[in-house]
Amino acid sequence: MLPVAFLGHGSPLTALEEGAYQDTLRAFGKELRTSHRNLRAIVVFSAHWFTRGGISVGGAARPETLYDFRGFPKALSEIRYPARGDPSLAAEIVNRLNRDAVFQTERLPARIETSRGLDHGVWTPLRFLFPEAEIPVVQVSLPVTHSALFSMEQAALALGQALAPLRDDGGGVLFLGSGNITHNLGELDSETPEAPAEDWALAFEAWAVSKALGLDARALVRWKEDAPFALRAHPSPDHWLPLLAAVGVAQSDASIGAGKILFQGMRYAHLSMTSLVWPSPVKRIPS
To answer: What distance in Å separates the CA atoms of residue 236 and residue 182, rounded to the nearest whole number?
Structure first.
């Protein structure tokens, strides 16, 4: 069975940089290709695609490379990640979500979206994981919710749980969440990538990593109430929610198992690049 990973994608400049993070992703991609010959497609939940009124699934046969940022070097907009899509897998994802009792109850239908390409939350890590872009990619949006009884955190978790069966042996689907464990652009030290990590960011990261590796979904859903410096780490939850989706996938129906840290590091004083992987399937833990 393929692992599930959460990748900190950081600033768009990550796509142009070289270092331990990029080397780690290259090594992880090589390991995946070697150990999982059945790998046929990648499904990504990115911090840069949220939809209202339902869930969109990228169904383009040849998704474009999106440049969903401003004020960065021209070299970034010259990057192409020419991965194919997988329309048949996209259709299967839509069918699964539309049969799922949770999303039926919450009236969050799934639909195919053929006009949207892959945002930088997708192609930034993938250009190091799979530089040849040989594996088809399907991006799935994260749903926006406004109900006190079904939060966006619960929706992201349920999204991963609903799609977890695609990890089954023979399915060949790799699931990735792409966001950041800390993400506060308002306080970012954008001039000093190597600035020492701030204590509050390290405290939040330590809490989040501990809960995520142990697949403590209840704590991750309640992060605003339970985590230290929660709203300073995430003034907006957009880069947090892909972690919930990845955890939801990792909570499949086998024996309990913990994850491990794939990469750990902080950029710009408090932008966490820490990335996690769950090598073992686990039981579904209610939120």
So the answer is: 10
What would the 3-class secondary structure string for 234-269 be? CCCHHHCHHHHHHHHHHCCCCCCCCCEEEECCEECC
Spatial separation of the C-alpha atoms in residues 124 and 26, rounded to whole Å? 12
The C-alpha atoms of residue 36 and residue 284 are separated, in whole angstroms, by 24
Dihedral (C-alpha) 134, 18, 208, 197: value to the nearest 10 degrees? Answer: -170
**DSSP strands (E only) in the chain:** 4-8, 41-46, 50-52, 55-58, 110-113, 137-139, 142-144, 173-179, 260-263, 266-267, 271-272, 275-278
User: Closest Cα to residue 206, out of 132, 134, 112, 274?
Assistant: 274
How far is Cα of residue 13 from the mean position of the Cα atoms in its chain? 18
Q: What is the pTM of this model?
A: 0.94
- Nearest Cα to Cα of residue 96 among 168, 145, 150: 168
Distance CA 224, CA 244 (A): 13
- Residue 242: burial class (beta carbons within 10 Å; 0-12, 13-18, 19+): buried
d(CA 119, CA 229): 29
Q: Dig out the tokens for 77 from the structure.
A: 């907009």
Residues 6+ apart with CB under 8 A from 184: 232, 233, 234, 235, 270, 271
pLDDT in tens, 117-170: 999 999 999 999 999 999 999 999 999 998 888 999 999 999 999 999 998 766
Cα–Cα distance for residue pair 144/150, rounded to 1 Å:
10
